[in-house]
């Protein structure tokens, strides 16, 4: 057993997990994927997956982390050994490391856009700008591989430094301010968009659905997004769970994380789409959605430069607390397994992800739609990496559900869950049957139809 210490505060796991969960997935990815997939039907599948699949797996993943008290890969090795189960389960850890590496590669590039907009806001360059100007500014950003690489580099170095120096503790106290502040400023933006945008159109776009409208790849994206947004199925939650106090409630914590994460996504979605419909912008414009709609609101609202600047700084705070949770499990594994020092392990992970991120950088310019690479491969590298994560995370979650559901004994689960027999049975039914069936159903439906 390694010598992980337990977080002193009961609430610290919750805070760290919320820090991991709430990020670009809520503010950037959720609205853009919803817009590309036509709204309500996407949200329905997303929400169903969160509650019927996500929460039970969230409990399972925390449980595996807490009962092994090691990094995901070593933890799974330990658990399979003590259970005499097949070593094949260790692939949960490996698959998770692959997901973390892929996600960090593009996450850092997108977070870089937020650095750009923080700067744009604080210098007041967008005050009074109209939709055309803001759109053109965004296009110019994407057209510059050099600028995108610069921001990507800054963000990934900052994340690496935090994990490498082991200063999560400092981040934790920061999160106590960043998370509520982010939520409040989102409500301010929502308030503005209720008055100046078209909230009615936004609500009907988001909450009315015709399930037949959702493409088969849309099903995969909706399920992938619900894992992505909860940081699920790749080891981040397992790694944090390893530090969770033994007497904290797994169930209550999982519900709290899912609730906060969903609330942030919904408020961001409502605000963004109210602005989109109010200004006659396109819902399906893709990854730029948040970055061309929110600055439009900040361009016009009183004290917009300041509010916008603070907003993007908070976005960066939320993004960094997520990116450190991507680095942490991989770094912890490299330290435990290969006897690396922490800085070496972090450096390795960060450099590899950074290099991979260059593929995302060029996906918006020299490898964008219409270029020869794109025509050759049928989708951009960024699209391809996102597709892989939409498969890897649910696959990791599926294995976590099966392992926790079938390999752990009643006594072991109860030791972690301390709950009633009824809830235990419900949970076990969900992880044994419902979650795996749901993931398999979406995979079987959609993957054969993913077009090149
Ligand atoms: N959940 C984070 C977000 O929504 C992204 C993330 C995924 C973080 C997986 C860690 C692990 O932004
Ligand atoms: Na999230």
- How helical, in percent, are the residues? over 70%
Strand content: under 5%
The CATH class is Mainly Alpha
Q: Which distinct ligands sit in these coordinates?
A: phenylalanine, sodium ion
- Per CATH, the architecture is Up-down Bundle
Unreliable stretches (pLDDT < 50, length at least 5) are none
Helical/strand content category? mainly alpha
Radius of gyration: 21 Å
Distance N terminus to C terminus?
A: 45 Å
Principal-axes shape call? globular
Count the strands?
0
Number of domains: 1
What would the average pLDDT be, to the nearest integer?
94
Helix run count: 19
If you consult CATH, what is the topology?
Amino acid/polyamine transporter I
Largest sheet: none
The H/E string reads HHHHHHHHHHHHHHHHHHH
């Amino acid at each position: 057993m390694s010598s992980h210490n337990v977080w002193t505060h009961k609430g610290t796991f919750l805070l760290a997990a919320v820090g991991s969960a709430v990020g670009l997935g809520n503010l950037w990815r959720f609205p853009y994927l919803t817009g590309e997939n036509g709204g309500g039907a996407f949200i329905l599948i997303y929400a169903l997956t969160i509650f019927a699949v996500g929460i039970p797996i969230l409990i399972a993943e925390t449980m595996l982390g807490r009962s092994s008290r090691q990094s995901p890969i070593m933890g799974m090795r330990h658990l399979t050994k003590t259970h005499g189960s097949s070593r094949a389960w260790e692939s949960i850890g490996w698959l998770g490391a692959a997901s973390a590496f892929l996600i960090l590669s593009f996450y850092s590039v997108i977070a870089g856009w937020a650095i750009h907009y923080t700067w744009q806001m604080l210098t007041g360059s967008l005050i009074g700008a109209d939709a055309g100007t803001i759109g053109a500014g965004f296009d110019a950003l994407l057209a510059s591989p050099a600028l995108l690489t610069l921001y990507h580099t800054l963000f990934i170095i900052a994340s690496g430094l935090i994990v490498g120096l082991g200063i999560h503790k400092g981040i934790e106290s920061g999160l106590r301010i960043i998370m509520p502040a982010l939520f409040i400023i989102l409500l301010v933006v929502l308030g503005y968009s209720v008055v100046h945008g078209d909230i009615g159109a936004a609500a009907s776009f988001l909450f009315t659905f015709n399930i037949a409208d959702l493409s088969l790849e849309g099903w995969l994206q909706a399920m992938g997004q619900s894992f992505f947004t909860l940081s699920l199925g790749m080891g981040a939650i397992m790694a944090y769970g390893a530090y969770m106090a033994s007497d904290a409630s797994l169930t209550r914590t999982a519900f709290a994380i899912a609730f906060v994460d969903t609330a942030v996504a919904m408020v961001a979605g409502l605000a963004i789409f109210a602005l989109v419909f109010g200004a006659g912008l396109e819902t399906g414009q893709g990854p730029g959605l948040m970055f061309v709609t929110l600055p439009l609101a900040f361009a016009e609202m009183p004290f917009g430069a300041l509010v916008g600047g603070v907003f993007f700084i908070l976005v960066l705070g939320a993004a960094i607390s997520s990116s450190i949770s991507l680095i942490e499990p991989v770094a912890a594994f490299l330290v435990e397994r290969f006897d690396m020092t922490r800085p070496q392990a972090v450096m390795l992970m960060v450099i590899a992800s950074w290099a991979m991120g260059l593929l995302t950088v060029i996906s918006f310019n020299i490898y964008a739609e219409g270029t020869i690479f794109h025509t050759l491969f049928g989708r951009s590298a960024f699209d391809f990496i996102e597709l892989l994560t939409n498969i890897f995370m649910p696959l990791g979650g599926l294995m976590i559900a099966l392992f926790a559901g079938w390999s752990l004994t009643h006594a072991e689960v109860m030791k972690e869950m301390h709950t009633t027999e009824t809830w235990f049975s419900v949970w076990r039914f969900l992880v044994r049957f419902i979650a795996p069936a749901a993931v398999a159903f979406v995979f079987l439906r959609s993957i054969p139809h993913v077009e090149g």
